[in-house]
Design a protein that fits this description.
- InterPro entries: BACURD1-3, BTB/POZ_dom, SKP1/BTB/POZ_sf, T1-type_BTB.
- This is BTB domain-containing protein.
- This protein is α/β, with parallel strands linked by helices and about 290 residues long.
- It has two domains: about 5-115, 2-Layer Sandwich (Potassium Channel Kv1.1, Chain A); about 125-250, Glutaredoxin, CATH 3.40.30.10.
- The chain has helices spanning about 30-35, 40-45, 65-75, 85-95, 100-120, 130-140, 165-180, 230-240, 255-289; strands at about 5-10, 15-20, 25-30, 50, 60, 125-130, 145-150, 160, 185-190, 200-205, 205-215, 215-220, 225-230.
- The strands form three sheets. Strands 1-4-5-2-3 form a five-stranded mixed sheet. Strands 6-9-7-10-11 form a five-stranded mixed sheet.
- A hairpin with a 5-residue loop joins β4 and β5.
């Protein structure tokens, strides 16, 4: 503007000055502007010329959006930083322009912390597509491992009506378990590793200790169909069992053997009793004839 002129500002610290920062108007003292060793001190201590308009407003060609924060920092020596990432970057740029080194450093530190938080995922789930990758992950893990093999396209038959829904349920349960136990168990997902369609595998101390296959073939009158199941209770049970392998010593093998032997003997005795009953029925039938 034709009335703009350059002048030197130097006065009493209590003297007020009028600032026009990119169209935003501020009113403050020379003492505030010269409190810290910044470019503003150089401008208002007589060391630099400043541009003023015909009404006495000192003109600074910067965006005035954050200049209020700049003044607050000059007055108090501290400032609550904005939560918004864009505003934080804008404030850092203004702090650097006015050579307010400590405020710029505070902004840099806040941005660095934010990047670290954003870059650190809550839970990592490796995707594997070969047996070699699987073996490498399992052998190098200090945790027990749960692997879900999921690949709908491995099927050569048509699916039963509930199969697609059950596939999704298996995936959702895997996601839920991985978020819940990620600190104690390594969860991995196999997307093209074999001819299976949906299968859970559980590893402890680098060895497979359990498996839950969720697919089967059912026969209709005209053709075969693939059925996908969602054995939720069994998957939960095997996941909890695998936590026994967190300890490098492992679970008590004698107890596990005794438990499995008891279950086997119980099953065998029931089966023998049923066979004995059938034999008696046949014998009675033959004697009556």
């Amino acid at each position: 503007m034709s009335g703009d002129r350059k002048t030197v500002i130097k006065g009493n610290p209590s003297q007020y000055v009028k600032l026009n920062i990119g169209g935003s108007l501020y009113y403050t003292t020379i003492g505030t502007l010269t409190k810290l060793d910044t470019m503003l001190r150089a401008m208002f201590s007589g060391r630099m010329e400043v541009l003023t308009d015909s009404e006495g407003w000192i003109l600074i060609d910067r965006c005035g959006k954050h200049f209020g924060r700049i003044l607050t920092y000059l007055r108090d020596g501290t400032l609550p930083l904005p939560d918004n990432l864009v505003e934080l970057c804008e404030l850092r740029a203004e702090a650097k322009y006015y050579c307010i080194g400590e405020l710029a450093a505070d902004c840099d530190a806040a941005l660095s912390r934010r990047r670290q938080v954003q870059a650190e995922p809550i839970c990592r789930v490796p995707l594997i597509n070969s047996q070699k990758e699987e073996q490498l992950l399992i052998s190098s893990s200090s945790k027990p491992v749960v692997k879900l093999l999921i690949n709908r396209h491995n099927n050569k038959y048509s699916y039963t009506s509930a199969s697609d829904d059950n596939l999704l349920k298996n995936i959702e349960l895997f996601d839920k378990l991985s978020l819940r136990f990620f600190g104690r168990v390594l969860f991995i997902k196999d997307v093209i590793g074999s001819n299976e369609i949906c299968c859970w595998s559980f590893y402890g101390h680098e060895k497979k200790v359990a498996e839950v296959c969720c697919t089967s073939i059912v026969y209709a009158t005209d053709k075969k169909h693939t059925k996908v199941e969602f054995p939720e209770a069994r998957i939960y049970e095997e996941t909890l069992n695998i936590l026994l392998y967190e300890n490098r010593v492992g679970p008590d093998q004698e107890l596990m053997l005794a438990t499995s032997s008891l279950a086997l003997s119980s099953y065998t005795s029931d089966e023998d009793e049923e066979r004995s009953g059938l034999a008696k029925l046949r014998s009675n039938k033959q004697s009556n004839q």
